[in-house]
Specification:
495 residues; mainly alpha; Growth Hormone, Chain: A; 2 domains; two-stranded antiparallel ribbon; 2 strands; transmembrane
Length: 495
């Protein structure tokens, strides 16, 4: 080694990008923690005020209705102002309405006004949370190399499951310590502090972050050491924002998407997934404690297990779908994983209501949500593929379907239980409400054989430089198009 050679060696890349992902995970965790805090407090609120299960279910669904209605505008807002401002708005707005959730039960407020006040407050909270995941996806695209973005997005979604799981024991303990009104205030304060941390540390552009060194900027811009990897290695450069904008220029738009049969089938399928997920999210704790009479402490622990299981299923499903592309091909790798997860969830939800063992019931619910988590990666990847140059729009359509299903189940489940209780009894009436969720999931699974991610090719207008019809494949795998890199990036395209 020559003198001075060690000093000339370039510095290793900094890891600011993963700290940014860590902040996104915290925001995702806190978002779902605040969502589920209301169902955790629901039983106490119903005991204190004249609010029945169906009306409380409407409070739960009010957030989801507003979240769904403002999802596409939230994505537009994120593109307009950037991820940093959008996520700061999400954090500060959510914090404010979390505090107001506790004030809705203030003694100065007339008893008859508590329920409508909760409806309005939770709806506004849903509106402010709607840009979260579009903005987070935008930040991940800017900060994470091409080959690491799937992992980063999976981590952000897994944090949401942890938020759901830990909301039951942590928010319940907080209520025990300070009361449910004050618990919402403490949660809101914590959310505001996280938003302040994001405002201080977060940036839209890695080049503008003072802690990012040149090596990390190069790594982010080039897709990682050696560039992109995987089936497209050597053919696809990590697209720059300018290249993405060019490649994603509006084509046929809504008319093309409206003719896409697979997109609408996937939307219906994802509605079934959302119905089953939100059924367990919102009503499992109540079912364990009030219907099965498992006790408050046991019910809190039991309600924590299904989201934890889903947190395991999320990355597992994506990994398995990728591994199966070799033997099964592009289309059926995703379809088989999604169908298997949905069938498993449907059967487990039904099985959980047919046993008298509390441990078996809790285990069935946990495994059911783990199975439905396996579907998420394949469903989202297919939604994006179906959109082609309109990937964000097609994903928003599919996610809207999931939220419609999620809106229905918190209201329909207790309604079925109340409808059947006079004839079958409370426990069996609720059991049928849960079985309906399982049957909806099984019905959704039946749609997957007709969902073809290759149908996106038929949405491209002729004359855009690509022929109509399915995308070119190799062994039923999509061959990714060559995207020209910016001048400072090495391009693998040939002129």
């Amino acid at each position: 080694m020559q003198p001075g050679e060690l000093d000339a060696r370039p510095d290793p890349p900094t890891s600011v990008r993963w700290r940014i992902v860590g902040l996104l995970m915290l925001m995702s965790f806190v978002n779902y923690f605040n969502r589920i805090s209301m169902p955790v407090a629901g039983d106490r609120i119903m005991r204190e005020y004249p609010i029945d299960e169906v009306r409380m279910g409407l409070v739960y669904s009010a957030l989801l209705v507003a979240y769904t209605a403002f999802m596409v505008p939230g994505g537009w807002f994120s593109d307009r102002v950037g991820g940093r401002v959008a996520l700061a708005t999400v954090g500060l707005g959510t914090a404010a309405f979390c505090v107001l959730s506790g004030l809705a039960g203030h003694p100065a407020l007339a008893v008859g006004m508590v329920w409508p006040t909760l409806l309005v407050v939770r709806a506004f909270m849903g509106m402010f949370t709607s840009p979260l995941y579009p903005a987070a996806g935008r930040v991940v695209t800017r900060w994470i190399p091409f080959r690491g973005r799937a992992l980063a997005n999976a981590l952000v979604m897994t944090a949401a499951m942890l938020g759901i799981a830990l909301a039951h024991p942590l928010f319940a303990r907080l209520m025990d310590a300070v009361g449910w009104r004050q618990a919402f205030a403490v949660s809101g304060l914590g959310t505001a502090l996280l938003a302040a941390l994001w405002i201080w540390y977060g940036r839209d552009d890695p080049g503008r972050h003072p802690s990012v060194n040149r090596a990390e900027r190069r790594l982010i811009g080039g897709g990682g050491p050696g560039g992109p990897v995987g089936p497209s290695a050597g053919r696809l450069a990590d697209p720059s924002p300018a290249a993405v904008a060019s490649a994603s220029a509006p084509a046929d738009g809504w008319p093309a998407l409206s003719r896409n049969r697979s997109l609408w089938l996937l939307t219906a399928c994802y509605a079934a997934i959302g119905y089953s997920e939100y059924l367990v999210f919102y009503w499992s704790g109540h079912y364990f404690e009030q219907v099965l009479q498992l006790g408050e402490r046991t019910s809190r622990i039991a309600a924590m297990l299904p989201p934890l299981a889903m947190g395991v299923g999320l990355p597992l499903g994506g990994w398995v779908a990728d591994r199966l592309m070799g033997p099964l091909g592009y289309r059926w790798a995703r379809a088989s994983v999604a169908m298997g997860g949905m069938v498993g969830c449907g059967l487990l939800l039904c099985a959980g209501t047919l046993t008298a063992s509390p441990a078996a019931i809790v285990a069935s619910f946990a495994l059911a949500l783990g199975a439905i988590g396996i579907c998420e990666g394949a469903s989202w990847a297919t939604a994006i593929d179906l959109g082609g140059s309109r990937a964000a729009t097609s994903a928003a359509i599919v996610n809207t379907g999931g939220n419609v299903g999620g809106f229905l189940s918190p209201v329909v489940t207790p309604w079925i239980g109340a409808l059947l209780t006079p004839d079958l009894g409370r426990e069996l009436g609720w059991a049928w409400g849960l079985r309906i969720g399982g049957l909806v999931c099984l019905a959704g699974a039946c749609l997957w054989p007709w969902i073809d991610a290759g149908e996106r090719g038929r949405n491209r207008p002729r004359g855009d430089g690509a022929p109509a019809g399915p995308p070119p494949t190799g062994g039923d795998r999509p061959v990714e198009p060559c995207v020209r890199a910016e001048p400072q990036q090495q391009s693998n395209c040939t002129s």
